[in-house]
């Protein structure tokens, strides 16, 4: 709960006992409304000891880095590689749980499906030895749906 989370935060919103928070979540779960906050802690998006303001600055900086990386990798990839990776990712992206409100609606021009495609393509191009494996979208899709931010979902996915 929100009260439980606050018990782990100190002055300035610094996370004091990350391992205890992990155990608390493991045993008790996370309220859906807090997942956006707690998942970023659990998935090590933030370096240790950041205050609330420093976490916001960190997220802004990382969003800029993600945008630059995405553009660089797309521009640097050979057309054949980009087409091959894009096609592999697309097969899974279009099969994302379309019954979920975040991914529902027509496929063409769907902003959330496009964000999932971009996130996974960027990951695959940035990790050529791993590239894209079937099912990665099943991990990335809930991150994107909860965080509602492509760059933050990419950070958590990585």
Can you characterise this structure?
With 158 residues, the chain is mainly alpha-helical. The chain has 2 domains: 2-43, no CATH class; 54-157, putative rabgap domain of human tbc1 domain family member 14 like domains (Helicase, Ruva Protein, domain 3). It contains 8 helices and no strands. The protein is globular, with a radius of gyration of 17 Å. The relative contact order is 0.12. Pfam families: RabGAP-TBC. Residues 29-158 form the Rab-GAP TBC domain. One of its GO terms (molecular function) is GTPase activator activity.
Secondary-structure blueprint of this entry?
Blueprint: H1 2-7, H2 18-28, H3 35-42, H4 52-76, H5 79-93, H6 111-126, H7 136-147, H8 150-157
Helix pairs in contact: 4-6, 4-8, 5-6, 6-7, 6-8, 7-8
Short description:
The protein has 158 residues and is mostly helical.
